[in-house]
Request: fold
Amino acid sequence: MNSSNNNSEESSKDIIADLQSRNMVVQLAGGDELKSHLATDSRAVYCGFDPTASSLHIGSMVPLLALKRFQMAGHKPIALVGGATGMIGDPSFKDSERKLNSSDVISDWVEQLKPQLSQFLDFDCGENSAVLVNNLDWTKDYDVLSFLRDVGKHFAVNAMIQKESVKQRLEREGEGISFTEFSYMILQSFDFAELNKRYDCTVQIGGSDQWGNITGGIDLTRRMNQAQVYGATLPLVTKSDGTKFGKSESGTIWLDPNRTSPYAFYQFWLGTADADVYNFMKYFTFLSAHEIDAIETTDKASGTKPEAQGILARHVTELAHGEQGLTAATRISEALFSGDINSLTGDDLQQLELDGLPCSSIAADSAGIVEVLVATELAKSNKMAREFLGNNAVSVNGQLVTEPDFQFSAENALQGRYFVLKRGKKLFHLGKLAG
RNA sequence: GGAGGGGUUCCCGAGUGGCCAAAGGGAUCAGACUGUAAAUCUGACGCGCAAGCUUCGGUGGUUCAAAUCCACCCCCCUCCA
Reply:
């Protein structure tokens, strides 16, 4: 596949080559110099994550796992949470100005992101233990005048407006950019210079949309610290069909199990298109490129359903939610998709609820199917509920239901009180008869 | 402060007095086919069982009738100062 690595022992030490073999390198700032820089010593590598919500989503896993890969190769990862930059909003490749969130909200999100960032990294492994930092720490007390003089002076507006990341925004009809967002690059650049000073951090990684901000930081670090630092960008995950990655019918796939259950998370990966799955394995798992290629070869030769999606789903779910989360997810999946729903015992059904299958109670009498579909959010209006019924899209305990006057009662419940509601092919909900 | 251009249903974007719940595309959802794929085809896509009701930045107004006209207000963009 690639001529420079007929010796796999050697190549595993070359983290850049390793990433390249996984199609994970978009751009390198420093090129060969960066490779030898990384080959000669353990380096501090940083990646920033801004609090734009109370949880990270799966898009953040690529850079986060990349930090982990650097750590496994002997380098020191620095996960930065953007308590400061999150206050400003990164304009890179965004087509419109974003609304600012209050500082209370942002600091709350920062706190929620910290454990998510931490879970993938090792903070107790000696020299190259990970570090978690918040850029608010070195910006909040910096006064405006000093900042403009010390930092701002190093930036040429001429160069800043040439950056591809903001260019389209500046040229876009009907949109503009505020000075606030325009300044984002300066803040992120300053982070790099600051981390270079504090931790001797010499490498920054990020999504390919971060190229402008990373090179800005490289320039600034050279000017402020007279130090040579490097950067690498990772691919933004895209899907072969052009639709947005990381969304499902129920919305964004979050890392927070309270927002996206391990089951829903697992199902998301299981639904990966064949055209994407091998690439995603390279991005999201620690299987070697060789192993992944082997799986692809086997799948292609088998002529039946590929194994890859299942492997991917298991690996990523375990990474994000641990062994327990994975067990719960597969238990639900098996019960709903391959088992006979009617043979589930009361314990099984209870376990499904504990495992995180969406669940709600149904009032004992006068519980019509239409109301229940809406109440359980399987349909978002009565009208849609009726439509689903008419389309043969609804089943209860494995039985197709098409009549809008279907009633729930102890007689047609499983174990006297449970209902497994299904809308469409993949959406399930557990109903419990109340009272 | 001045001049001009805009704000339409999730997104893009038509619509300039009735035929508009509002073209078209995208996204999404369901069904068929399948592998809990892809592609394709069919259907749905404000709410309501229905009669009908509520929408086109906001508030008032003109009119038998407004997303479309008028007034004021809010927000965005461009250029000038």
About this structure: The radius of gyration of chain A is 25 Å. Residues 1-12 of chain A have pLDDT under 50 and may be disordered. The domain at 262-338 of chain A is CATH 1.10.240.10 (Tyrosyl-Transfer RNA Synthetase).
